[in-house]
Specification:
The complex is a heterodimer. Chain A is mostly beta strands. Chain A contains no helices and 11 strands. Chain A is about 0% helix and about 55% strand. In chain A, strands 2, 4, 5, 6, 9, 10 and 11 form a 7-stranded mixed beta sheet that branches. A 4-stranded antiparallel beta sheet of chain A has the order 1-3-8-7, with no helix packed on it. In chain A, a hairpin with a 5-residue loop joins strand 5 and strand 6. By secondary structure, chain B is mainly beta. In chain B, strands 2, 5, 6, 10, 11 and 12 form a 6-stranded mixed beta sheet that branches. Chain B has a 4-stranded antiparallel beta sheet with strand order 3-9-8-7, with no helix packed on it. In chain B, strands 1-4 form a two-stranded antiparallel ribbon. In chain B, strand 7 and strand 8 form a beta hairpin. The chains are: A mainly beta, B mainly beta. Chains A and B meet through strand 4, strand 5, strand 9 and strand 10 of A and strand 5, strand 6 and strand 10 of B.
């Protein structure tokens, strides 16, 4: 149980284009999802917290107009990197928190999406 | 504010040897504590978690961790390391509600023959 998927797993795009990354909780309803960015050999950097049906809460220094987050349902959140530039190349990981009693504090992670902007 | 410290950036152990990865946290109340493992190019997999109760927690893949309130620690242990355990290990602390986990910087484990 508690499986989170991400799609695509890897994407290469040209500078200036937009890329959408999907995060799905496959076997549970995720009231809250989180988006992280990870640089090589570094820890996770929280970008934003996404609650179903409401606007995402962005961490300081993260451009909300550049990293658009939508949490339209209890099983799907999307991150759109708009007008991507080479410096946006990174590993993006989502996680989902179950709303079930006794387990709501556990975050389950997706496999990540490797973005390369040329 | 919560914080997590993993003092060891990189540890190398021989296959079959025991392992202990250190984690110290800072939080005013009893936290929820987690250990995750990340293989190269992969997401994070939950190894084990502590919410309350028995301070020695068993996880997957033969790992265990012990919560020591007096030392604000939650060290991860494994009695005999396998080559497949080579990965990055992250300790994290959380609270109730919608606040995200706070992660340590990670410890990279290398396993040699």
């Amino acid at each position: 149980g508690a499986v989170v998927s991400q799609h695509p797993s890897r994407v290469i795009c040209k500078s200036g284009t937009s890329v959408k990354i999907e995060c799905r909780s496959l076997d549970f309803q995720a009231t809250t999802m989180f988006w992280y960015r990870q640089f090589p050999k570094k820890s996770l950097m929280l970008m934003a917290t996404s609650n179903e049906g409401s606007k995402a809460t962005y961490e300081q220094g993260v451009e909300k107009d550049k990293f658009l987050i939508n949490h339209a349902s209890l099983t799907l959140s999307t991150l759109t990197v708009t007008s991507a530039h080479p410096e946006d190349s990174s590993f993006y990981i989502c996680s989902a928190r179950s709303g079930t009693s006794g387990n709501q504090e556990t975050q389950y992670f997706g496999p990540g999406t490797r973005l390369l902007v040329l | 504010a919560q914080s997590v410290t993993q003092p060891d950036i990189h540890i190398t152990v021989s296959e079959g040897a025991s392992l202990e990865l250190r984690c110290n946290y800072s939080y005013g109340a009893t936290p929820y504590l987690f250990w995750y493992v990340q293989s190269p190019g992969q997401g994070l997999q939950l190894l084990l978690k502590y919410f309350s109760g028995d301070t020695l927690v068993q996880g997957i893949k033969g790992f265990e961790a012990e919560f020591k309130r007096s030392q604000s620690s939650f060290n991860l242990r494994k009695p005999s390391v396998h080559w497949s355990d080579a990965a990055e290990y992250f300790c994290a602390v959380g609270t109730s509600g919608n606040t995200p986990l706070v992660f340590g910087k990670g410890t990279r484990l290398s396993v040699i023959a």
